[in-house]
């Protein structure tokens, strides 16, 4: 039996599939949304990192601009610059080394651009500071902010003029303060933002928090305008360039900070979520499957109880069997209770109807039996009464006495036969099966039917293969004799009527009836069964009467009880066989009996 062949299996399968599909769809949607939200979060984080890096850089620029202005406004420094003596200027700067210790560059020049003092690890060596565009702009009275490429990063420089006077200031020189955008700063920013950073000028990556083997790949992402994806070794990153300023005069290389956020790490952090969702889905599917089975069982268990009772009623015919649906402790199945109550009501109605029909049938049968018995018994009683009246006459002769006694004896025998037929039909038949020679039984039955009175002989056509059967020989003999007697009576009646109609005009009809077998008894064995055929060439049965020939108490023969064929049918069917009749008026009648060759006792 397949899973879908039962109602329980179909309900369980449908519920389980619905649960699995629902849970699977929910988990899929959650996974997709979590992944999509992670991607969006990654986009937001990298943009936030760009904003944060830019703000930190600008904050430092503002801080160093204020520091440069404060130094440029110092009177001692102005006086030292006027001396044009580098040692004097350097002595004045020593007092400000502590506030400027975080600066990577401090340069003081005179009005011609000559460097008077320097400090920091990025101080110019061997090149005139006046070559710096920022210094030239400062000597013209402008504050400038610029970027200079260095071997280990980008130098962010703030330059302010040193001036005397307010309305018409005299430019004495310049002060330049700067800080490096190098690996140390990039590492600090990575610790704050969680993003990798690379500083580059043009197509050259000067410093980065990533391995230097990826410089060439990073250089290809420096000139973009939006977020892009870049693969670095086994990891995937989102990259967003941050322009730091315009290119210096005479150069096309603009400084850029490239912000990178690891997409692989971000998605790897989702593995725990995906694993948790997968475990949740498995547990939910198992629970849903168990729940589906429980629901299917609660639905089909009452139906199984109902169908079991139905099968039992169908097998036994016991309409007193009732369906009892046990009420669950947790819920009450109203539909099952309704079906059970409906079935119980139906069986009660059928049982009541059967009782009423049986009662009516018994009354009807009793009426027909009373009519038959009254008619059949009245005639013998009248004959017996007439015979007794003759015996009471004075001077009755011995011959008349013998005739009257013979009549009484014949009619008593007739009454006894009527009573026996009624009892045989009314009482249950108990069979005693045993191995039997069917052909010998047919010969005995034919002889007994011939001995019952004058008339046609019985022609036998017996199959030797049908000799050995297991049956109740006595009961079968009663049925065969009964049907053979009926066949001989039918032939005798037709013979008499044919002679009467053929006197002086149609002698050939009589000759035909005499020459051909009028009653035949045939046996044949085939496929584990035996067939017995009793055929006569009598007047046949009216088609209107043919469906009722096996009904009890139905007869068209004067003096018959209508029980002979009914008793024969009960015997044949009790032996596991079938009986049927074919007849045509003017042709004759054929009764065909089919019996199993073997029966269990």
Question: Briefly, what is this?
Answer:
With 601 residues, the chain is α+β, with helices and mostly antiparallel strands.
Description:
By secondary structure, the protein is an alpha+beta fold. Helices cover 51% and strands 20% of the residues. It has 14 helices and 17 strands. It has helices spanning 7-72, 75-83, 86-93, 133-139, 183-193, 215-219, 263-268, 271-316, 334-391, 398-426, 438-451, 473-502, 507-515, 564-574; strands at 105-110, 115-119, 144-150, 153-164, 170-182, 196-201, 204-208, 228-232, 235-243, 255-262, 434-437, 458-461, 468-471, 519-526, 529-536, 578-584, 588-596. The strands form four sheets. The chain has a five-stranded antiparallel sheet with strand order 2-1-5-4-3. The chain has a five-stranded antiparallel sheet with strand order 7-6-10-9-8. Strands 12-14-15-17-16 form a five-stranded mixed sheet, with helices on one face. A hairpin with a 2-residue loop joins strand 8 and strand 9 (235-243). Helix 2 (75-83) runs antiparallel to helix 3 and helix 9 packs antiparallel against helix 10 (398-426). The longest helix is centred in the first third of the chain and has 66 residues, at 7-72. The radius of gyration is 63 Å and the shape is rod-shaped. The two termini are 36 Å apart.
**What order do the strands of the largest sheet run in, or round the barrel if closed?**
2-1-5-4-3
Distance between the termini: 36 Å
| Mean pLDDT metric | 80
Helix content: 40-55%
Record the SSE blueprint.
Layout: H1 7-72, H2 75-83, H3 86-93, E1 105-110, E2 115-119, H4 133-139, E3 144-150, E4 153-164, E5 170-182, H5 183-193, E6 196-201, E7 204-208, H6 215-219, E8 228-232, E9 235-243, E10 255-262, H7 263-268, H8 271-316, H9 334-391, H10 398-426, E11 434-437, H11 438-451, E12 458-461, E13 468-471, H12 473-502, H13 507-515, E14 519-526, E15 529-536, H14 564-574, E16 578-584, E17 588-596
Parallel strand pairs: 12-14
Antiparallel strand pairs: 1-2, 1-5, 3-4, 4-5, 6-7, 6-10, 8-9, 9-10, 11-13, 14-15, 15-17, 16-17
